[in-house]
Amino acid sequence: MLDIQLFRDNPEIIKENLKKKFQEEKIDSVDEIRELDTKYRELKTRADYLRGQRNSLSKEIGTLMREKKLDEANEVKQKVQDFADELKRIEEAEDPLFEQIQTLMKNIPNLIADDVPIGVDDTENVELYRVGSYEEKGYEIPYHVDIMESFEGIDLDSARKVSGAGFYYLQKEIARLHSAVTTYARDFMIDKGYDYVIPPFMIHSNVVEGVMSFEEMENMMYKIEGEDLYLIGTSEHSMIGKYIDTIVDGNDLPHKLTSYSPCFRKEVGAHGIEERGVYRIHQFEKQEMVIVCHPDDSTRYFEELYKNTVEFFETLDIPVRVLECCSGDLADLKHKSVDVEAWSPRQNKFFEVGSCSNLTDAQARRLKIRIKTDDGNIYAHTLNNTVVAPPRMLIAFLENHLLENGNINIPKPLQPYMGFKEEIIKRK
User: Fold this and answer.
1) Which of 247, 279, 354, 357 fits 340 for a cystine, CB–CB 3.0-4.6 Å?
2) Domains of the chain: which residue ranges?
3) In the predicted structure, residue 276 carries a pLDDT above the cut 70
4) Of 170, 290, 171, 281, which is closest to residue 233 (Cα–Cα)?
5) pLDDT higher than threshold 70 for residue 17
6) Superfamily holding 122-424
């Protein structure tokens, strides 16, 4: 959510940002917010005046009563009552007006960074660089579900009967590989100096509204029936929510956190065969990074975050590329974002395995996360990034490490988490 002062002083900046994000339909809302804000401030000014007059006249009544000027005292009492009645009407109008302004403001996207490429959707994202070798295997790479089934490592049929489409049973060495990757990711981030956290997996609606837009919430979140609770779509939601209504000592920043959680998403829409299996699913697990920092530092921490992911995939010998997200591909709260994509030898293309975002103070304003500084309290900046999100990441892992004999090579950093095995042996 943007600062209301920006609407008052520089509405054209907001309107230009809406044009860059191809959300021109929201431009009229900027003027509506300004008009409502003017009305709200007028009410506040009038209310402050009435309170002052009421207090002053109340003291005058006592003086008149002591002087036995009863008629004058009654006249003043009537004025006080009139002021009180008007003040009550204003106070009753203030809260709904404030909520109306807040609702409209939450629908206005964060300002994007100056260097964000302008584009309508993800087809116009800009590649920054690549890491790793893309040599052809020289042999066929099967569909990822077929690879898993060759190790008796997945059971989709049973999952459909138990839970429906979009769920899975991981089994045997594939399940172990899944756990090995998340555990290695945890230790990788701890070694980077991040504090390990296991957060709540359900959050209240006020936290949901603080970390994402309403549209995102409707498309992603599962609500617990009869409860003010939502299943998290990523641990970033509860990790940022941890700071709701807090004032953080600026001397303690940055807070660098890495969190593990299961994640639950609706994943609305139909998808092609390559996005079935365990690519686009309703339940998965994830190791995340979150940083809460001073506004002056968020740009450099943004770069640190996505480079952590690139390095993580490098250690596992999985080629990746980094894409700068264009203006139309940025979610409303994002100031700047990059995607990390892994190489798929089967498809001969990259696919997304992580997303890094700088939200600046958008979430902090909604959740009232502030920093105590020598010059007073200011809003914090929040950032997040995916370390790894299996089982989708396993698609890239299996395709890149599949040997010609059907076995799976295990890179050295992962071997301690797999019983020091160098290969996973094909079962059928």
Assistant:
1) 354
2) 4-106, 122-424
3) no
4) 281
5) yes
6) Bira Bifunctional Protein; Domain 2 (3.30.930.10)
SS (HEC) of the chain: CCCHHHHHHCHHHHHHHHHHCCCHHHHHHHHHHHHHHHHHHHHHHHHHHHHHHHHHHHHHHHHHHHCCCHHHHHHHHHHHHHHHHHHHHHHHHHHHHHHHHHHHHHCCCCCCCCCCCCCCCHHHCEEEEEECCCCCCCCCCCCHHHHHHCCCCEEHHHHHHHCCCCCCEECHHHHHHHHHHHHHHHHHHHHCCCEEECCCCEECHHHHHHHCCHHHHHHHCEECCCCCCEECCCHHHHHHHCCCCEEEEHHHCCEEEEEEEEEECCCCCCCCHHHCCCCCCCEEEEEEEEEEECHHHHHHHHHHHHHHHHHHHHHCCCCEEEEECCHHHCCCCCCEEEEEEEEECCCCEEEEEEEEEECCCHHHHHHCEEEEECCEEEECEEEEEEEECCCHHHHHHHHHHECCCCCEECCHHHHHHHCCCCEECCCC
Residue 281 near residue 167 (C-beta atoms within 8 A):
yes
What per-residue string of b and e applies to 224-253 under the rule 16 or more CB within 10 Å gives b?
A: eeeeebbbbbbbbbbbbbbbbeeebebeeb
- Residue owning tokens 């009180």: 84
φ, ψ at 129 (rounded to 5°): -165, 170
CB neighbourhood size of 99 (10 A)? 10
Domains 4-106 and 122-424 share a fold: no
Q: What is the pLDDT of residues 27-50, one digit of tens each?
A: 999 999 999 999 999 999 999 888
Strand partners, 285: 262
Show the tokens assigned to 90: 């204003």
For residue 270, pLDDT beyond 60: no
CATH number of 4-106: 1.10.287.40
Give this prediction's pTM. 0.90
